[in-house]
Design brief:
The complex is a heterodimer.
Chain A lengths: L8 H15 L11 H5 L1 H17 L17 H13 L9 H12 L2 H12 L5 E4 L15 E5 L2 E12 L6 E7 L10 E7 L5 E6 L12 E12 L3 E2 L5 H12 L3 H20 L11 H33 L4 H30 L17 H12 L6 H12 L6
Parallel strand pairs in A: 1-4
Antiparallel strand pairs in A: 2-3, 3-7, 4-5, 5-8, 6-7
Helix pairs in contact in A: 1-4, 4-8, 5-6, 5-7, 8-9, 9-10, 10-11, 10-12
Chain B lengths: L6 H17 L2 H9 L6 H10 L17 H14 L5 H14 L2 H12 L5 E4 L15 E5 L2 E12 L6 E7 L10 E7 L5 E6 L7 E12 L3 E2 L6 H36 L1 E2 L2 E2 L4 H29 L5 H26 L10 H13 L4 H11 L3
Parallel strand pairs in B: 1-4
Antiparallel strand pairs in B: 2-3, 3-7, 4-5, 5-8, 6-7, 9-10
Helix pairs in contact in B: 1-4, 4-7, 4-8, 5-6, 5-7, 7-8, 7-9, 7-10, 8-9, 9-10, 9-11
The chains are: A alpha+beta, B alpha+beta.
Bound molecules: flavin-adenine dinucleotide (FAD).
Flavin-adenine dinucleotide sits at the interface of chains A and B.
């Protein structure tokens, strides 16, 4: 083994750092880069701006083939970019487009689909949403009821999707739909790409727990009423959608850069505690505060060490030297470790802030723009989105450890 | 020993539950959270009709003549249902006036409280965000027949609708921080008071209150000059204990709501309550809730009987702080995405659990008391 950084990466990292340092000066005040920041009109406008700047440089999808808008850079350079972006809390890379549907199309899309959909993603022009969950199909995605009826060269889609993050700003969606009445559950699912401006689509933002009068929502419910979708927008074969879904799921989790972001946030919190003297002396002098901050530092580094192995595994997967199955256990484990760590982070911040932790950013007394007040609530979603903690644990037990299912 | 409720108490609990669920559905809770007033004057009047504001006040002062424990049973139901507004602040301050006020003050304030015509609140904490006497810096200085108050209070609950504030001030510098503290009954409409509600996680209207040369007559001193801290301590004990009961009601409601939900919600062809992972959460939630209820009743019975120690109250509050947060957090997790929305009721409890922890002493603060009382 060799943990020395790869030669040349430090220079690459510096280039990205320099870029983000400048661009982030233009961020709206109190910017944390979380889903709620991205969901506001102001936040989304900033997101699109940064995306276009990145797109001009070919940085949105660094590792993609040049013919689809990438620069064919190594996995590791991609990581350097991801880390820099996370560190600066920068928007501009669509987690659903560049992060999920793009890699899925690269793996299983038709040539026509790749040529049509990948370059606009790489240019940072088109934004995607994930239309999977429904009111009665969350963890159990195979229970999805939205139906796509074949009619000539089109499907006519009817149904309801929900919890669709960012759909109120998105251009396109990748949807899980039912295409057969003969087959049941996952055997009847197909994967469709849907233009969200199509006739028959209604998108209603859903307010999240922390919202009140002035705040905006970041996820949505979507009604599809006789929406016409060309058959050429189907990814993979009809009723073979489950295989595509699994492919996308593999791209949904990575997370190394999230620890880089947490490192930065921890430094900011430490700095705040060094400067703030609510009761006469700096918060950082209190043994309880020191203990809690030290624990966060430890937990972040432990996660980061493990996440490096996920990255390495993905690299080997890319080289064809490892199967996705070997990856699944660690990815699942780290997925909920990360979400629970971000929850502990928010809880710790609140504990340190005491009475101040309840103030929303609108209060002039709110420390760090009410960051922890908001995150105390938004952190819950991380334990649920992209496969709940309980589902991840089932995967580890059943697939990773081979424990019996009863 | 007898751990049963009396028939009268059973009726009170049932009546409170029915009244609150009818009068204050969750749609109204949300509406009140977004309103400037933050409470419903109609419900306030109806509660006065039931004798709730004066439930523990003697009949001489227009009260119902029941006990602090009976009051707390109503507060527990308010935690169960959720009732935004200044009830808690008002009754705790009324209990303080009953305990420490002169006969004249009692006659002036308590009948109005009983009649639902007076809202009171305790203005104690400051930007130092502390419950301790060494951090009281709002000053009151003698000037003829008056005292003149200057300084800033922060996180003052319900100040924007209160008629009178019980303002904790420093009237004398002293080597011992608990000496030299005086409580004033201050008319909230006095010139020089500026009140600005702050948005909080609980959307429960806590204010910054700035005092600029606010004149208060000497007769409005509550208790003795420079000896107010023991009254503050006694008030904090009552408030913390009663808060534990409110939190226990919230735990119970969150448990019930979640147990109902997991029986209904299906995944993979089963109610999710059939999965052992979920069952174990529910079992733990039951346990935390049961212990919170037990400790809430016991500590409040002791407060009511004048037997509670600082240690009793600190243990109960520290326990409830963590239990309520944990129960509501698991409750959201069991609900999945819908639990994270503004429209679902469980989030109302999750947010309140955090704010209730902060009210009258968070866990760090209570643990310090526990450690101190245990002699370490
Ligand atoms: C912030 C956020 C953003 C989201 N964004 C999107 C998006 O962009 N697009 C999209 O399609 N969806 C999105 N979702 C939806 C998300 O994928 C679902 O919420 C998730 O899959 C869980 O489904 P559910 O909410 O219906 O909960 P349910 O599946 O009903 O689960 C409820 C509870 O039961 C538990 N449970 C279920 N099955 C089992 C089992 N077998 N064993 C043990 N426990 C079990 C769950 O873990 C959970 O605790 C988002 C959700 C959140 C919170």
């Amino acid at each position: 083994m060799d943990f020395e950084p790869i030669p040349g990466l430090a220079e690459a990292r510096k280039k990205y750092d320099d870029f983000f340092r400048e661009e982030m000066k233009k961020a709206p005040p109190g910017w944390e880069g979380g889903p709620e920041d991205l969901a506001t009109h102001e936040g989304h406008a900033f997101q699109r701006y940064v995306a276009r700047e990145l797109g001009k440089r070919g940085w949105v999808c660094l590792a993609w083939p040049k013919k689809y808008g990438g620069l064919e850079k190594s996995h590791f350079e991609q990581l350097a970019f991801n880390e820099a972006r996370a560190y600066w809390k920068a928007p501009g890379v669509d987690q659903f487009g560049a992060g999920m549907i793009g890699p899925t199309l690269l793996a299983v899309g038709s040539e026509e689909q790749k040529e049509r959909f990948l370059p606009p993603i790489a240019r940072g022009e088109i934004w995607w949403a994930q239309l999977w969950s429904e009111p009665n199909a969350g963890s159990d995605l195979a229970a999805a009821q939205t139906f796509a009826q074949r009619e000539g060269d089109d499907y006519i889609v009817n149904g309801q999707k929900c919890w669709t993050s960012g759909a109120h700003h998105a251009d396109w969606g990748f949807a899980v739909v039912r295409t057969s009445r003969e087959q049941t559950r996952s055997r009847a699912l197909s994967y469709l790409l849907i233009d969200l401006r199509s006739q028959g689509i209604t998108i209603n933002p859903l307010a999240t727990m922390s919202s009140h009068r002035t705040q905006e929502a970041y996820f949505n419910e979507i009604f599809l009423d006789n929406v016409r979708v060309p058959v050429v927008n189907r990814v993979g074969e009809e009723n073979d959608g489950w295989r595509m879904i699994r492919a996308t799921m593999n791209f949904e989790r990575s997370g190394l850069s999230a620890y880089g972001a947490m490192r930065r946030e921890l430094l900011e919190l430490i700095e705040f505690c060094r400067e703030t003297k609510w009761q006469g002396e700096p918060l950082l002098n209190k043994p309880l505060v020191r203990d809690r901050l030290a624990q966060l530092a430890i937990d972040i580094e432990a996660g980061m060490a493990s996440a490096r192995h996920v990255l390495w595994g993905q690299y080997k997967l890319f080289l064809g030297e490892e199967s996705p199955r070997d990856q699944a256990t660690r990815s699942s484990s780290l997925k909920y470790y990360r979400s629970e760590l971000s929850q502990r982070f928010a809880y710790t911040g609140c504990q340190i802030f005491g009475l101040y932790s309840q103030l929303k950013r609108e209060s002039r007394w709110a420390p760090l723009y009410g960051k922890f007040e908001k995150e105390y609530q938004s952190c819950l979603g991380n334990n649920i989105a992209s496969g709940t903690t309980e589902i991840q644990k089932n995967i580890i037990a059943w697939e990773g450890l081979g424990l019996p299912r009863i | 020993m007898n751990l049963d409720f009396t028939e009268e108490q059973k009726m009170l609990r049932t009546m409170a539950r029915d009244f609150l669920s009818t009068e204050c559905p969750k749609s109204l809770v949300r509406q009140l959270e977004e309103s400037d007033l933050g409470y419903s004057p109609e419900i306030w009047k109806k509660m006065a009709g039931l004798g709730w504001q004066g439930i523990m006040l003697p009949e001489d002062y227009g009260g119902t003549g029941m006990t602090f424990f009976d009051l707390v049973l109503v507060i527990e139901e308010m935690g169960h249902n959720i009732l935004p507004g200044p009830f808690f602040s008002t009754v705790i301050c009324a209990a303080t006036i009953l305990e420490a006020g002169t006969e004249e003050q009692k006659r002036e304030f308590l009948p109005k409280v009983s009649a639902g015509e007076m809202i009171l609140t305790l203005a104690l904490t400051e930007p130092s965000a502390s419950w301790q006497p060494q951090h009281i810096s709002v000053r009151a200085a003698a000037s003829g027949e008056n005292y003149v108050i200057n300084g800033t209070k922060l996180f003052v609950p319900d100040a924007h609708v209160a008629n009178y504030l019980l303002v904790v001030t420093r009237t004398k510098k002293s080597a011992k921080p608990e000496e030299g503290i005086t409580i004033f009954l201050v008319d909230a409409g006095s010139p020089g008071i500026q009140c600005e509600p702050q948005l909080t996680m609980g959307l429960d209207n806590k204010s910054e209150v700035v005092f600029e040369n606010v004149a208060v007559p000497r007769k409005n001193i509550l208790g003795k000059l420079n000896q107010g801290w023991t009254i503050v301590q006694s008030t904090l004990m009552k408030a913390a204990a009663a808060k534990v009961a409110e939190m226990s009601g919230g735990c119970q409601a969150s448990l019930e709501m979640t147990a109902d939900y997991v029986k209904e919600r299906e995944a993979y062809g089963h109610p999710i309550g059939g999965f052992q992972a979920i069952q174990h959460y529910l079992a733990d939630m039951w346990g935390y809730t049961d212990r919170t209820k037990s400790i809430a009743w016991e500590v409040n019975w002791k407060v009511s009987a004048g037997m509670a120690t600082a240690l009793d109250v600190a243990i109960a509050k520290a326990w409830a702080n963590e239990a309520y947060k944990w129960v509501t957090e698991r409750a959201v997790q069991c609900h999945g995405a819908i639990g994270t929305t503004r429209d679902h009721d469980i989030g109302l409890y999750y947010r309140r659990a955090k704010v209730a922890e902060l009210d009258y002493g968070d866990t760090d603060y209570q643990k310090e008391i526990v450690a101190g009382e245990l002699g370490f």
